[in-house]
């Protein structure tokens, strides 16, 4: 999957749709995953080395930057074509898979540097007036938005995942019920578990 970007570099396409293989969970000694042989295609969300971004890097729609909805429709049509004639997955299994593999609604877009700046400003404003409920909400949202940008960014996993975890923990300390922070934090912890590694300890512990 990662080689697709390198392979496409020379032709510089406007849209790229990569098709790859994945592991299955119904063979001897295999990991317990939701994929099964003969039950159609899968949409990649994450693996031990990466998390697929939940939104395009740019929210602007131009002639050379088609809307995300178009890309999603094309991806869905390809999945239907590839899976045509395959045995349908058990609805109960599909529902359960959706619970574990789907992230919460993503935060508003923006570049990582812009989101970092917004996070720092919101944090400073909240520190100066912590009783203000509006500033609290803005601080949590800015923290989660920045964390999600770090998590799905281009940084090395050894750098971005610990930083994203730290930011999600920071947001959850203020708002323990924040859905995006809880779901994406768990995705990162699952990656460490798949790699057989201990997740980084929170600062001060």
Q: What do these coordinates show?
A:
By secondary structure, the chain is mostly helical. The protein has helices at residues 3-7, 68-83, 91-101, 112-128, 133-151, 157-174, 179-194; strands spanning 46-47, 50-51. 50% of the residues lie in helices and 2% in strands.
Spell out the blueprint of helices and strands.
Elements (H helix, E strand, L loop, with lengths): L2 H5 L38 E2 L2 E2 L16 H16 L7 H11 L10 H17 L4 H19 L5 H18 L4 H16 L11
Antiparallel strand pairs: 1-2
> What profile does the largest beta sheet have?
2 strands, antiparallel
Work out the strand percent: under 5%
How far the N terminus sits from the C terminus, by CA atoms, comes to 37 Å
Helices, by number, come to 7
**Residue-averaged pLDDT, rounded?**
74
Fraction in helix: 40-55%
Given as residue ranges, the uncertain stretches (5+ residues, pLDDT < 50) are 58-64, 84-89, 91-106
What would you call the structural class? mainly alpha
Please provide the ordered H/E string of secondary-structure elements.
HEEHHHHHH
Main β-sheet, spatial strand arrangement: 1-2
Radius of gyration: 19 Å
Number of strands: 2
Shape: globular
